[in-house]
Amino acid sequence: MSYPLEQDVKTQKIWLFFAGPENWLDEGGERDFSGDILWSCETHTRPGDLALLYRKSIDHLTSDDLVKMFNMKRELAEDLKARGLGKDISTVWKVISVKRWFLPMGWKWPAGCWVQQILRISPPMKLSELRANSTLWRNWREVRSNFHAPGRAALEIPASSWKILSALIQERQGVKGVNKSPGQSLNPMEIAREKHPRAYEKWSPEEDRQMLNLFKKGFKPGEIAKQLGRQSSAIRSRLKKIGILE
Fold first, then answer.
1. Domain ranges across the chain
2. What's the CA gap between 195 and 175, in Å, rounded?
3. Does domain 14-181 correspond to CATH entry 3.90.930.1?
4. What is the per-residue pLDDT across 65-93, written as a single tens digit (0 to 9) for each?
5. What's the rounded Cα separation, in Å, for the pair 12 and 31?
């Protein structure tokens, strides 16, 4: 499966999605975003678009608050605070499909997008880093307003800003030999294949058999992924698709 080196501005948009602490934290600390997830988005978001996940601040929450709100261990809560998480971009998603009707009860946004994680940014990219980039500061208005977007489910990232962001993310991941020019856009599939050689390749019947055999032997999705050269999220999605996992 190929992926364009440059954003196709006619067919593809890049978005900034938002996550409050209640969305990116759970009792285990940072929420695992592998697998398909339904997320709030704008009505003109389209399948094939990419989205960066911006995790909002937890500066206003104490360790005691985190323990009470998420039922997490105190040591974990204190570690989260010490690491200064929040106000950062942690994940790149690909939009798989868009729902505008029959959304879950209480859904307050205009649309919902089914997304799949294609890259986890480690360590997360802080808003302060983006604000320190003079070009982003000058050309991306929302950076100057700290991504303040009342009443909006997502912000569209300008193509010029995406070129800079993709280069920064690529540098963050330590990827060598892929899109080395700062003017080129991030190639998430190529980056995924640096660690997972079979990422996004079509599944073969033999791979399905191997996956099922390993699963029946008690191997966890992450362990199966290593053996098959796939991502953990792909193993979980495949097991769900064939009815093994709910």
1. 14-181, 205-241
2. 10
3. no
4. 999 999 999 999 999 999 999 999 999 99
5. 27
